[in-house]
Backbone:
């Protein structure tokens, strides 16, 4: 915890924050002093709540800023289901694109070589992690067929691929105590990927069901 503010700093903050409103041109000096003392006293009282955790009125500044409605077990299960959904959807998409000769075998071979050299076993089909699946997509970007609102718009496609990368990082550095706002970001990013890849309707229904269940527990 950082050094508590001095009385001088509190006074300066109080005057800067309230002086223009409370101090009218016709106020007497005594009146100004009384107002200043009251403002300083109120400011000190608010700061003291953050200074001493032993105080009964102590408030954690972080808890005042975010709401975490889903416990660690719920978040662990949710992220596992979401990652499985996205990974299998991408795998199915790349299989179709490969059968349509829109995925270069050499590009996959290079990615697979790097994969196995790192000591990992050869995956079935395109069941890599999200980041490696993205590498396959980028290596064949000019040939692949995309769907949804971004179809034919490579600026939007590039933005969605950036979101894809951000999602891959989140899954690889998983935190099981995310605030509600970040949990909702998972759903938004995954929805973009599903639309981009033309996922089947039942996948969207599953995503909606997971989101509805999460929303029921989130209070923010």
Residues:
């Amino acid at each position: 915890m950082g050094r508590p503010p001095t009385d001088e700093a509190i006074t300066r903050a109080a005057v800067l924050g309230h002086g223009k409103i409370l101090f009218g041109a016709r106020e007497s000096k005594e009146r100004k002093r009384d107002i200043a003392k009251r403002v300083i006293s109120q400011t000190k009282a608010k700061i003291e709540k953050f200074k001493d955790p032993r105080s009964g009125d102590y408030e954690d500044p972080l808890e005042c800023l975010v709401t975490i409605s889903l416990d660690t077990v719920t978040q662990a299960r949710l992220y596992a289901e979401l990652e499985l959904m996205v990974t299998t959807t991408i795998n199915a998409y790349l299989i179709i694109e490969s059968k349509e000769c829109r995925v270069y075998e050499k590009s996959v071979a290079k990615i697979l070589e790097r994969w196995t050299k790192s000591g990992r076993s050869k995956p079935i089909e395109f069941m890599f992690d999200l980041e490696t699946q993205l590498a396959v997509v980028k290596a064949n970007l000019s040939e692949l067929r995309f769907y949804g609102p971004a179809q034919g718009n490579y600026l939007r496609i590039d933005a969605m691929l950036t979101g894809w990368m951000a999602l891959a990082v989140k899954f690889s550095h998983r935190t099981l105590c995310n605030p509600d706002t970040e949990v909702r970001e998972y759903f938004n990013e995954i929805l973009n990927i599903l639309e981009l890849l033309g996922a089947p309707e039942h996948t969207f229904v599953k995503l909606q069901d997971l989101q509805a269940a999460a929303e029921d527990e989130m209070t923010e």
In short: The longest helix spans residues 72-99. Confidence is low (pLDDT under 50) at residues 10-25.
